[in-house]
Amino acid sequence: SIARVVFALEYDGEGKRTVSYRVQERAKFDAPKQPVRRTIARSIGDEAFMRVDLTEDDRIVLRSQTTTTSLLGESETSSTESVVAEFLPAELTAWDLDGSGRTLYAGFANGHLIRWDLSKPESPAQTDDVIASGSALTALQFVLGDISIAVGDAAGALAVWSPTSSEDRTRELRRIHELPRFGGGIRAIMPSARNKCLLVIDEDGDAALVHTTSARSLVRFPKESGVLRLASLSERGDGVAGILEDGTISLWDLQNPHPETSARTLFGKVWYENYPAPAFTWQSSASTDDFEPKLSLVPLVFGSLKGTVYAMFFAVPLALFGALYTGQFASPRFRGVIKPVVEIMAAIPSVVIGFLIALWLSPILERYIIAFFLALMFIPLSVLVFLTAWIPIRDSNFGKRVERGYEFVFMLPVLMAAIWIAYVVSSPVESAFFAGDFKQWLYDTLGERFDQRNAIIIAFGLGFAVIPIIFTMSEDAISNVPGSLRAASLALGASRWQTVWRVVLPSASPGIFAGIIIGFGRAVGETMIVLMATGNTPIMDWSPFNGMRTLSANIAVEIPEAPVDGTLYRVLFLSAVLLFLITSVLNTAAELIRQRLRKQYGQFQ
Question: What's the Rg (C-alpha) of the chain?
Answer without folding.
Answer: 35
